[in-house]
Amino acid sequence: MRQATPTSRQSAASKHVKARAVSPRSKRAHVLKGAAGARRASSPDLPRKLPRQPRAHETVKAILQAAAKLIAEQGFALMTTNKIAERAGVSIGSLYQYFPNKTAILTSLLEEHQAGIQPVIEQSMRELEDPKLAFSEAIRRLFVRLLEKHAVHPRLNRVLAEEVPRTRRAIALDRHNEEAYVNRVVEILRKRRDTRVAHPIAMAHILFQATQALTRWLAHTPPEIHIREACIDEAVKMLSVYVQERRRRSAG
Amino acid sequence: MRQATPTSRQSAASKHVKARAVSPRSKRAHVLKGAAGARRASSPDLPRKLPRQPRAHETVKAILQAAAKLIAEQGFALMTTNKIAERAGVSIGSLYQYFPNKTAILTSLLEEHQAGIQPVIEQSMRELEDPKLAFSEAIRRLFVRLLEKHAVHPRLNRVLAEEVPRTRRAIALDRHNEEAYVNRVVEILRKRRDTRVAHPIAMAHILFQATQALTRWLAHTPPEIHIREACIDEAVKMLSVYVQERRRRSAG
Amino acid sequence: MRQATPTSRQSAASKHVKARAVSPRSKRAHVLKGAAGARRASSPDLPRKLPRQPRAHETVKAILQAAAKLIAEQGFALMTTNKIAERAGVSIGSLYQYFPNKTAILTSLLEEHQAGIQPVIEQSMRELEDPKLAFSEAIRRLFVRLLEKHAVHPRLNRVLAEEVPRTRRAIALDRHNEEAYVNRVVEILRKRRDTRVAHPIAMAHILFQATQALTRWLAHTPPEIHIREACIDEAVKMLSVYVQERRRRSAG
Amino acid sequence: MRQATPTSRQSAASKHVKARAVSPRSKRAHVLKGAAGARRASSPDLPRKLPRQPRAHETVKAILQAAAKLIAEQGFALMTTNKIAERAGVSIGSLYQYFPNKTAILTSLLEEHQAGIQPVIEQSMRELEDPKLAFSEAIRRLFVRLLEKHAVHPRLNRVLAEEVPRTRRAIALDRHNEEAYVNRVVEILRKRRDTRVAHPIAMAHILFQATQALTRWLAHTPPEIHIREACIDEAVKMLSVYVQERRRRSAG
DNA sequence: GATGAATGAGCTTTCATTCAT
DNA sequence: TATGAATGAAAGCTCATTCAT
């Protein structure tokens, strides 16, 4: 389940930003002119170079860290490429050596976050498949782990999810992800019980969307602490009862 | 349940936008209290002047319509005040006679949408209270009506919900709204059954968040049509089973 | 005696200017303290960046020169940042790399003028202290030198003194300057004669204000040439007689 | 002695303002199209109409009062014609019925102030002529009365003197005024003593400029109260000693 | 006359991106 | 390769003034 930009939202971003990042590259934008070397094909929002040398690696890391901090501290709108470079202790020119544009930095950040979430999802999928584990327990673990992940850089994650303009690429990626998880869940649903559900695909989508939304809500707009615990319980309850009701019905 | 900007997110938008819309408007700092006229109190994101003459009313309407169209067509980032004015066939000066800043236009649009949703919520609340109506049926009607409302300007609503930077004011309003609906739902939950639920408040929050997220997903990221119907069924199923399970449990 | 912006006057300038220059710059609110680089602390009206490379130095110089010319030719009101940049043969972006806002350019110009006046004042102070030099002669020399300085860019200096909106900062600086010179003059008065004057502080203020006003008047609103010479004589006369009368009286 | 805009100062005013008020009327400016009735010849900065009816008189008064208050409270830059009209409880259209442009309002205000000062000057001139009154006493009375006048609307007077852009017309008027007073003073100087002064004209100018500058300084930048009194004493001292020294010398 | 809605040139300022050094 | 000065399109917003009603 992709966590960073769920129901998917994004912000206005600078009109500048937007006008430039979202619309076809402004006139002064220059396409990476087939430069060879360690460059990837010039897909717009991907890092420009695969850093080869350790120094380069560090530069890239510094840039991403600086960007993350800026976003977390000041919000997306105040995150400018020049500030990122300054914070990273790198010249703006160098920044553009490693990232073709601002969007690419955000994409990297997003992908980093996703990469962090990936194992959590994987493990939860395995647990869901495990017949020895109660559904509700598996779901609870999923929730708890996702919330843990979000707790590491809560502000960053929130901003990434809510404020950063979504590129076409990011949207497509999300859809693709959802599709993948849905397929996986459908299979699990089929395996876990003998009876067919009316619409396993629909069910999987609902589970995906609900989990995503509730996780995000709990992570980003924390209700008072004592309600929060209850909310987790309730969320888990809702989802597991939902699935089990099916089983019960079909079993009944 | 407020649908327009729920867990909703937004960012700072353009540094322009941010710097101006978020910081206190310095000039307007001293309001001339003696002055009468058709001005509202100078709260930042509220319309500046109440139109007095029919001509003015039309201007305001034209501006809002133009803004809505631009947003729907090009996304928030490409919506500039100058373009709005142009599209509205109105001078930029006129625009600023009625809206103190760009954000105020969005706020108006948002409030318009909210106003449209309000009666739907009201009716659904009444239906939920009605013991003669099955929970699941009440919830299904809620979903259907919300989706109908969202179907009027789907792209506009999506952008409003996902792309538009949320002001402090809007965020506070959302929280307040959620609180209100939660309270309402809690009461309904208590009335509808004899037994107490463990955490009616938590339950109400979960219902609110889930309904909001699923409505939005269904309205804005439409899955293929034949899946869509099933998804509505599933969503309704999930929510009503969730509530009824409680009853069953507590009753059992 | 500081000559550039004495009792000086100015207004808010454009509402633009005011609204922006006077209110705290919202964005710059959080200064990234970690960031090194050639930036000064982000005080509103100070230059933004210290130029590091010769090219940058030239840019700054060109901007200041262009601003000075525009002011002298067209007055402050017609001096716009875009015109300055154009005249300087520099992009508007470059201008804003070195000056955070329009006011900062004026501040620089003012400080430049002040820096030019400083040695004149210093020398005159020394001469006033010198018992071998007649008071009247010392004062005459002060006048002559100040007028010489003002003669370099008379129109610029006039506009700077009369038309340019004074920032809080500038006003405070002026007060501070006056205070400093007054203290200095008070000491000199005490040293130069055995008897105490009734109110050396008041006397010093009067001398400061009168000198400043008369210098400015002579430099900026030149009376016909043959009267001008007489006016200098009279001004010197007035001031020196004023001081000496005291001595005579107290001695008598 | 004209007090309102002495060494002549003006401000930046809005760039808008300036660009429009100082430079030749912007294109949209329309010349009063020979409208007959109670109109004066269309000199730009004079009130447009001589109000005939009492109601009109009140309107004009209300406008001027509103303008004065706005200036005093918020400074010149925040004084806009629309705000003036609003404050005056008059429509912006009406305002432009009585004043051809913003400058005319300021001109009126300035002239009002001058008119108030006029009798003070007249009386002082008579006292200066009066051989029974000591010079120093006459000058002291002049100072005291000028300061009293300035004390009525101190902020308004300061802003009028320091912030308001000076029109060509206002500058010319000032020069003319200075000329007139200088001539008057020259005659008085000649009458009051038998001997000729070296440069009565120069002396008169110096007296005029010094008095003006010191009055303004004392009125607008008030030093601490106990110093203030001493400063008045010193100012009077300086001026009277200056004149009397002449007499003494020529007599000696 | 009075009203007030409308106008629009023009201002300040930003920031992603380029490219000479 | 790294640097950082330079670029400039474009955005939000103001306010003196006009003119239809």
Could you explain how this protein is built, in words?
The structure is a homotetramer of 252-residue chains. Helix content of chain A is 68%, strand content 0%. In chain A, helix 5 (102-129) runs antiparallel to helix 6, helix 6 crosses helix 9 and helix 8 packs across helix 9. The first copy, chain A, has helices at residues 15-21, 54-74, 81-88, 92-98, 102-129, 135-152, 154-162, 168-192, 200-220, 225-251. By secondary structure, chain A is mostly helical. Chain A contains ten helices and no strands. Chains in contact: A-B, A-C, B-C, B-D, C-D. The interface between A and B is large, with 58 and 52 residues. The structure holds a DNA duplex (21 and 21 nucleotides).
How does the SSE layout of this entry go?
The structure is a homotetramer of 252-residue chains.
Chain A: H1 15-21, H2 54-74, H3 81-88, H4 92-98, H5 102-129, H6 135-152, H7 154-162, H8 168-192, H9 200-220, H10 225-251
Helix pairs in contact in A: 2-3, 2-5, 2-7, 5-6, 5-8, 6-9, 6-10, 8-9, 9-10
The structure holds a DNA duplex (21 and 21 nucleotides).
Properties at a glance:
homotetramer; 252 residues; mainly alpha; 10 helices; elongated; disordered N terminus; DNA-binding
Task: Describe the structure concisely for a colleague.
The structure is a homotetramer of 252-residue chains. The first copy, chain A, has 252 residues and is mainly alpha-helical.
